[in-house]
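As promised in the previous annual report, we have extended the structural survey to additional targets. Below is the entry for Serine/threonine-protein phosphatase with EF-hands.
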Amino acid sequence: MGCGPSSGRQNPSTELKKSQSRTGAASSSSSSGGHKNINNNNSTNNNNNNSTSSGAKKTSSSSNKHHSTKKSKRSNSKKHRSPSPQPQLTIKSAILIQKWYRRCEARLEARRRATWQIFTALEYAGEQDQLKLYDFFADVIRAMAEENGKTGGDNGRNSPLMSALSHYAKPSLMDSEGETVKKMLEDTSPGNVDVDRNYKGPVLSLPLDKPQVAKMIEAFKVNKVLHPKYVLMILHEARKIFKSMPSVSRISTSISNQITICGDLHGKFDDLCIILYKNGYPSVDNPYIFNGDFVDRGGQSIEVLCVLFALVIVDPMSIYLNRGNHEDHIMNLRYGFIKELSTKYKDLSTPITRLLEDVFSWLPIATIVDKDIFVVHGGISDQTEVSKLDKIPRHRFQSVLRPPVNKGMDSAEKENQAVSVDEWKQMLDIMWSDPKQNKGCWPNVFRGGGSYFGADITASFLEKHGFRLLVRSHECKFEGYEFSHNNTCLTVFSASNYYETGSNRGAYVKFIGKSKQPHFVQYMASKTHRKSTLRERLGVVEESAVKELKEKLSSFHTELQKEFENVDLEKSGNLPILKWSECVERITGLNLPWIALAPKVATLSDDGKFVNYKEDRKIAQVGGTHAQEKDIVESLYRHKSTLETLFRFMDKDNSGQVSMKEFIDACEVLGKYTKRPLQTDYIAQIAESIDFNKDGFIDLNELLEAFRLVDRPLLR
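The corresponding structure token record, generated without further manual editing, is:
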């Protein structure tokens, strides 16, 4: 970026050697080199003396020898004079180059941090939307129930969306051995599925062993899909093991004298392969803890899950899995896992999804290593207690996002709830919380769930329970790991290239010996970073972040333009960067370094002091190119992920299609959620334009393709 010397410039030490080699007739940068040159001169003089004759020539030779001695003395005296000023200039040049280098590094670091802020702000805004949406669902269903009690009617219960949501409106009340569970286990039995002759993927049989797991891994490396029969078989066997385990696992390293802890994988199968290659397969001598968030975001979530579950089946005492906030069906609807299952398994994805909901609910929620290290996915709060975690009926929380008590319940109804509010908060905190440098404990408003906890909360928790260290995951870190709270809280994140190729390293930590000294191993699954410079990798990541941010701004186009015009009293079409930044943060709710980002996301004046807000050409469009209502279109575009989540709620058979009625129903619910009612007639027009093949159904792929940014379409 022009913030340092060119790549062809020599380093300071090379320049120093070159400069010193030029000073004097035969001088050198080292004392040994100087002696070598003197010996060479003496040798030359001796050869000349030996070649001379006697007599006059002898006298001449003696004279020459005397003259040569004087010359040599003068030469030596020159060498002992004060050094030439050129080395001093070279040192100054080296210092200048060093300053340029440090300045360039600082600028790159500033760009990296700004890019990181964009990715995290957009990620957490999505999670916040998801939590708000689920709260909205609970309120809608509660209102329906109250209205039904008054009128005796169904009041919308026949609505496709409301029918789908009713299953997720409250915690699971079913007993682990109840009739509902038995029927689910029968319906998802591997015996119900036949393996066709054309199947060429890995074949599994019980009992599972390491050679079968190794073959399965090799098949996944070449993108082969495991047959649904074997997926169901793995899930059923894993469920038996998880069901027999306590909510908080306890591990002893007295035999292994070591333990390896891995963080989020998020469907990054390549990262899992790197871990197993570098650190070996789990065994009694090489135990593992995988700390949640195995699925979502990445494209091979089911492969990661099958390998981890298969390793648990082979040797349950050598690998322990903690539940993360993404081992949750509601999260899977939004962040890609359900979509992945539907794509790979079509109609058979339904029994797999149903069984996964139950299996996730049986995963342990924390692990304690030698009464010394507490391992949990998210973190803690000032209310977290291990004794309470031990007693939580975790299987009743098929979704941790599901509050156990609805508003308006009387005391008798609250007492009859399957789980208490305190238990739910304990679960929410350990899966959703994040550490902060500030003291105290307060709600995690950035994510929308869990708590922020300071160093004092960590110290109090560790002291109360006799632990030395808290290990958690949940947050992407640039280096793959990070210590905080005076080295008492360690974050480990194992998914490399999380936001974009080259965005971050993955890492795992290995605690070795009785003192459990941490040893970190970092990696990056993609080989691209080895062929490009840091600046080039940062450029690619930065470009991706800016692109996402521009899309976000475009979804607020109308609101931003109104805000700019209200602030621009002179109606000049230009705003000072500071005022522009304040407007953008106020409308989008994103706390970002907008002043630094302005040149990348807006059009600046020639002097770089003003933003020409009327030059913003990109705006949202849904469906065809007919005249579109800006407010409605931008609202749909802004909440397209939420709309997709609504569709996946309604798509009970995972067919990937919804009817026109279901689309309109979802848009109406979205209008209530955003508190911006959408006109039914206009929504119907959009639905027709999205239905590209005119079959009366909207394919989810058609829906996602319909959302795009265009250059100023016809608006009214």
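The first helix runs from residue 12 to 22. The chain has 26 helices and 20 strands. These points will be discussed at the next consortium meeting with the crystallography subgroup.
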